[in-house]
Amino acid sequence: MLVRRGFWYWQFAAAIVLPLWVLTGYALWGAGTAGFLSVAILTPLLVVALLGLAAVLSARKSVRVARALGWADVGVLTALSLAVIGVGFFGPAMVWFSVLTVAALLGAYWLAVAELAREVRARVQVTLTALGVQPQLGPVDAGEYIVLPPPADHGPIKP
Length: 159
Known about the structure:
- The chain has helices at residues 2-29, 33-58, 61-66, 71-87, 94-131.
- It is mostly helical and 159 residues long.
- The longest helix is centred in the last third of the chain and has 38 residues, at 94-131.
- The radius of gyration is 24 Å and the shape is flat.
């Protein structure tokens, strides 16, 4: 529980610490003027992406109440943090760390949204059951369909 709770706080701190690490890494091991433009554009995007991820992860009631992320969230956030740290070294493997960062960020969003949807679905089912409403699980009959034939081909349209 201590690790999961630590990552709860890290997700908010990471939105500031990781982009600062990339800027510091560029100052120490930077790659020239072209690299500065990419760092200047992508670092604010990283801040926004990490804050958005923290918001989606925090949207789950179970996470807010326990103030602790799930183990899957911890794993993905660890991979994302390590990838961004690798980018900050601006070495020969920076491109691979950049690809890994994007993949980890997409995976983290996918996981966070899937877990949020699963939790919301379970809470809605509990609420509907408490209200006495049972969702219809059978096939839905939409009635009779009328199929119209496609219009006849009159050739190309001339202006």
